[in-house]
Amino acid sequence: MSSQKTTTVAIIGGGSIGVAFAVVFTRAGWNVRLYDPDAGRRERIADEVTTRLTQLSGFGLLAEAVEVLIDRLQVVETIADAVADADLVEECAPEQLAIKRELFRALDEAAPPQAILASASSAMTASSFAENLAGRHRCLVAHPGNPPYLIPLIELVPASFTSDEVVERARALFEHSGLRPILVRKEVEGFVFNRLQGALLREAYCLVRDGVARVDEIDTVVRDGLGLRWAVVGPFETVDLNTRGGIESHAKKMGPAYARMGAERGQHDPWTDELVASVASARRELLPIEHWEDRVAWRDRRLMALTRERSDAGLEESDH
Ligand SMILES: NC(=O)c1ccc[n+]([C@@H]2O[C@H](COP(=O)([O-])OP(=O)(O)OC[C@H]3O[C@@H](n4cnc5c(N)ncnc54)[C@H](O)[C@@H]3O)[C@@H](O)[C@H]2O)c1
């Protein structure tokens, strides 16, 4: 990336995610060209971006004035105008295969050869909508959390035909925009984020159906329990730190119960000794066992800071 030239991004589709990306990219100092086929939407986009930027500014989360940022946004009427000199195109149209296929065909024709063509798709792979394009080497999925100006994680999901150079350039660009890219190593429907979310949601629906817990009670269990913890450590680090002896000790104690719970739902993916050993070995590389106590203390300090923050925001008292 040249240090002189300002990055230009084209956003294709100005609904929830397109507008949120406009916030991310104007905040990063980039020129943003946003296209939406719906004239009514086009009229509302600048106001919606301004509102969100103003809210961020109110929380002290912007380094520049809202007027400076909004000046970087141009809402345009054609795809050609959006992509004209784009370094990156982020497609944010509805999650329908026919729409993505047609859009990627049009984007590959209209965008400059160096432009990366990324899709915000929540579950569809680049193989399913870009396989037959001349420029397929520059196509991939870049799937954000919603809204990306508050949830920094973005999944980069290349197809087998996406070039490594494009993946690396996409990673550098998204990092520069303030997001945290992770590379999804194989194309699977739903990628990692929505597969994990899906596992939890499937069980949540079953628990409601079976009368085990009400909808609000399940949200409370996640908000005040699992989710609070996951704001600090992920599921593997959680069990590694919760059980003296780490992953292997946890899998020994709890593995059979989790296997029965999975079988009850028709899922038969036992944690074999080999699989547990490979997860344990990855964890020990990240956290040598002699630092285990320190990390537990670190986790607790992070949770203390979060607890104070939630208390300041009144979240401890509010049920909704
Ligand atoms: N909403 C989320 O939580 C979320 C999170 C991550 C990824 N995504 C993905 O982002 C994409 C957009 O989702 P969204 O929630 O913003 O949808 P949305 O319905 O809010 O917005 C879609 C926008 O695309 C426009 N559009 C329709 N046809 C188009 C076309 N042919 N070309 C360009 N634009 C077109 C619509 O006018 C609308 O403004 C989807 O692929 C979705 O799966 C959504």
Task: Explain what the structure shows.
The chain is an alpha/beta fold. 53% of the residues lie in helices and 12% in strands. The longest helix is centred in the last third of the chain and has 21 residues. An eight-stranded mixed beta sheet has the order 3-2-1-4-5-6-7-8, with helices on both faces. Bound molecules: nicotinamide-adenine-dinucleotide. The site of nicotinamide-adenine-dinucleotide has 23 residues, from α1, α5 and β6.
Question: Secondary-structure blueprint of this entry?
Answer:
Blueprint: E1 8-12, H1 16-27, E2 31-35, H2 39-58, H3 66-70, E3 73-76, H4 79-83, E4 88-91, H5 97-110, E5 116-119, H6 126-130, E6 139-144, E7 153-158, H7 164-176, E8 180-183, H8 193-209, H9 215-230, H10 235-242, H11 246-264, H12 273-286, H13 292-312
Parallel strand pairs: 1-2, 1-4, 2-3, 4-5, 5-6, 7-8
Antiparallel strand pairs: 6-7
Helix pairs in contact: 1-2, 10-11, 11-12
The protein binds nicotinamide-adenine-dinucleotide.
What's the short version?
The chain is α/β, with parallel strands linked by helices and 320 residues long. Helices cover 53% and strands 12% of the residues. 28% of the residues are buried.
